[in-house]
Amino acid sequence: MKYQPARNGALYFLEQTVTKPTKTVLEALEQDGRFTMFLELQRLSDDAFVEVMVTQMEPLFGYKMSPEEYWQNFPDAREPYTKKWLIGPTPNPDYADPNITISTWFAPTDAAFKHAGFNSVAEMLQFNETRGHVFFDEGTFQPTGGYPLDSIVNYHRDWGRFLRSRILVMG
Predict the structure, then answer these.
(1) Of 2, 37, 72, 100, which sees the most CB atoms within 10 A?
(2) Whole-prediction pTM
(3) Helix 36-61 and helix 150-157, axial crossing angle in degrees, nearest 10
(4) DSSP 8-state secondary structure symbol assigned to residue 3
């Protein structure tokens, strides 16, 4: 790389620029094909979480709400799989400084999950079920808990911010 020393640093001359993204991160990962386990784990974990919640809430509410109604009424319990996949520069209201954008992702490939001992999404979901602690807390009237593999997804998707403070993962 060519550079020119300057008074307080250096100037680096680029031979080409990076093309502005036209897809969301989710679209790019889906089209890549190496991240199927990462994406399916998130989708199915969200589905499982919501199913536990609406099933446990049914006797209290007198009916079983739909997943869409659940997300609408309890948006702070768990950040849904479908959110937070944009690449800047659109300001993100979750960050204090509207100029801060996060556009580097460290998404685990299917090979990484297999190297960690998970040969399928079904194995990961079984691991979550046996070690997760997800329930609707009648005392606080709030969804509570999480799955062990949420911690992996959490730091690879939104830098550790998609799980709310009420989430308690027991392993």
Answers:
(1) 37
(2) 0.73
(3) 120
(4) E
